[in-house]
Write a structure and sequence with these properties.
four-stranded antiparallel beta sheet, five-stranded parallel beta sheet, Response regulator transcription factor, Sig_transdc_resp-reg_C-effctor, 18% strand, OmpR/PhoB-type_DNA-bd, alpha/beta, transcription
């Protein structure tokens, strides 16, 4: 999930729509709401956040260092100002990157992946046996051949891979794929997505790489 902060609801809604086309869940906040949320959100909710995008906010309304106190997810500033002084102020405030608008959604996703990779939180891909799982939206490969997947199934596989070695609950998967504030989709949809994903992986691999335990959740089997 990606969190977008901007004083203009039209902007947060617009970015959410664009990310949704890429199969990426989002949550939009006004600056005041965001400050309260990030200081009180549960650790499990924050672990579902892949990055924070900070747009137009009044000076001092958002503190990247406050975000850093709670999570290591990248903080990227979306800037409409093309002055060097403004860009330097943003970096001094603690953001990881400054992106000048207009910018394509896929470029933002690529920058997020690059930042996480440099921070050793996320590699360019994860290999599970003969399967290579990319973290930038590409379909996984099995024995070098792409395996086309619907975007939700692909994102679930990426999320499981990014949590390699750890078991994640159905709620954590749902929050990462649909967002923690999506009330229009039932959490049980995760089970349907994973069932379809497992079937496709079994057909290609000859085994089931997703281990599941009731009440404990899911993990990739290496």
């Amino acid at each position: 999930m990606i969190v977008i902060v901007d004083e203009r609801e039209l902007v947060t809604d617009g970015y959410s729509s664009l990310f949704d086309r890429e199969g990426v869940a989002t949550a939009g906040f006004a600056p005041g709401e965001f400050g309260e949320w990030v200081s009180s959100a549960a650790d499990t909710d924050l672990r579902s956040v892949r990055a924070f995008l900070i747009g137009d906010c009044r000076d001092g309304a958002i503190s990247p260092r406050q975000i850093r106190d709670r999570t290591g997810a990248p903080v990227i500033a979306l800037s409409e100002h093309h002055s060097l002084e403004h860009t330097l102020r943003l970096f001094e405030s603690g953001v990881d990157d400054v992106v000048r608008k207009p910018v394509h959604i896929r470029e933002i996703l690529a920058r997020i992946t690059a930042i996480r990779r440099r921070g050793s939180e996320e590699a360019a891909y994860t290999e599970v046996g003969s399967m290579r799982i990319f973290m930038d939206g590409r379909d996984p490969e099995i024995d070098g051949e792409p395996l086309p997947l619907p975007r939700r199934e692909r994102r679930i596989l990426e999320y499981l891979a990014s949590n390699r070695g750890r078991r994640v609950t159905k709620t954590q998967v749902f929050n990462a794929i649909y967002g923690i504030f999506d009330e229009e989709v039932e959490e049980n949809v995760v089970e349907s997505h994973i069932s379809k994903l497992r079937k496709k992986l079994r057909e290609k691999l000859g085994r089931d790489p997703i281990d599941s335990k009731r009440f404990l959740g899911y993990r990739l089997v290496f």
